[in-house]
Amino acid sequence: MKNLLKIIPLLTLLFLVSCATRKEIVNLKNDSFYIRSQIDSLRAEQKRLRAAIVKLTALTEQSTEANNRLRADIQVQLNQLAEQSQILNDRLEETGRRISNLPSKLRLTAPVVAPNADTINNASRVDTSQVNAAARRRLEEAQRLYDSAYQDFVKGQYALAQQGFAQYLQLLPESELADNAQYWIGECNYSQKKYSEAVQAFQIVITQYAAGEKVPAAMLKMSYAQIALGRTQTAKENLEALIKRFPQSNEANLARSRLQELKR
Length: 264
Hints:
There is one protein chain. By secondary structure, this protein is mainly α. The protein folds into two domains: about 1-110, Helix Hairpins; about 130-264, Serine Threonine Protein Phosphatase 5, Tetratricopeptide repeat. Helices cover about 80% and strands about 0% of the residues. It has ten helices and no strands. The chain has helices spanning about 1-60, 65-100, 100-110, 120-155, 160-170, 180-190, 195-210, 215-230, 230-245, 250-260. Helix 4 runs antiparallel to helix 5 and helix 9 (about 230-245) runs antiparallel to helix 10 (about 250-260). The chain is elongated. The N and C termini lie far apart (about 80 Å). The relative contact order is 0.06. Mean pLDDT is about 75; it is low at about 1-5 and about 105-115.
């Protein structure tokens, strides 16, 4: 009976954690659906603008200054849509990662039942429990920082998001999300038109997290920032390096489009 009374609170806590996790899954899936719909809308708009460029190209022989200006304006819009699409793709990838990590988050928040006191030295058990509890609190704090920073980014609160990602890196500089956090710091700077800082942040992703999944996106956005700074030749070289290193990536396709534009 006593053992049953001890187990009931643990089962209750596990049930509450499970409910919270299921709610989070629903929210993330809704966010994923919303992002996908935005991407589809952007792609439709890109298709419309590309069709307009084709029509304008047919008028090349009768080109006028007005037509040239219109074509340039449409190309600018295409570039902006491509950048928005890239950000949405990154958000979709981030949302998918968070959904896939929910089981581990459940394990992290679930209580650990201590072994029988008769088989383990009491002092040793207390010390181990304290160490595990401290490590768990550190992980939970870091995860809250990351999630909060990401939500701030989605809301357009870039300065606040950048601060949160930086704090996450201070807590867990070698974690599996460190390259993601560093990448989003670059995106925060880029979104605030702090292009020099963005280049530096993306460069850190490329050099310090060379094996990470964010390298292609960092190479692409670093090139965009360099173009904004007027460093066109350097940007071209980086775009070509991206295509060579990750030829099948979505970022490589965007890099090819941007290179074609720069050659005009």
